[in-house]
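User: Could you check the structure of this?
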Amino acid sequence: MVGHIDSPHVRSTLVMSGQTVAAGMAQARRAAEWMEGHEREFMALVGCCRDMRRRNKRGYMRDRAKIWCADHGVSVEGDGFRFANALWAALARYIALYDPALHDMLEMHDSAIDCVGLLPVSWHDFGKAA
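Assistant: Sure, the predicted structure tokens are below.
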């Protein structure tokens, strides 16, 4: 695929099929659209993850990030402080690309997005090291 960024998560059990690729493309488009308009919120998530790493807080990162966002007034989805699994899967991958030191604590599981990769974002070259 032209203009894609390889996922930092290596798919292990998810079988690639037409349906999975279609779901992955929809997930990649939705995540890229969110990323384009939410650089500040993304950087806040990176800061949240860095702080948790510094304090050695591991496990349930999606839930920890959701609570952190609610406590700090950072809205990730249009209707408040929640993360759909599909959006968090993509954001975790963007976070791992932005700061590879966070990869090991993000607990990534196979996702349809791993079949297609991430899409470029205008404000950062996630295909290269930060």
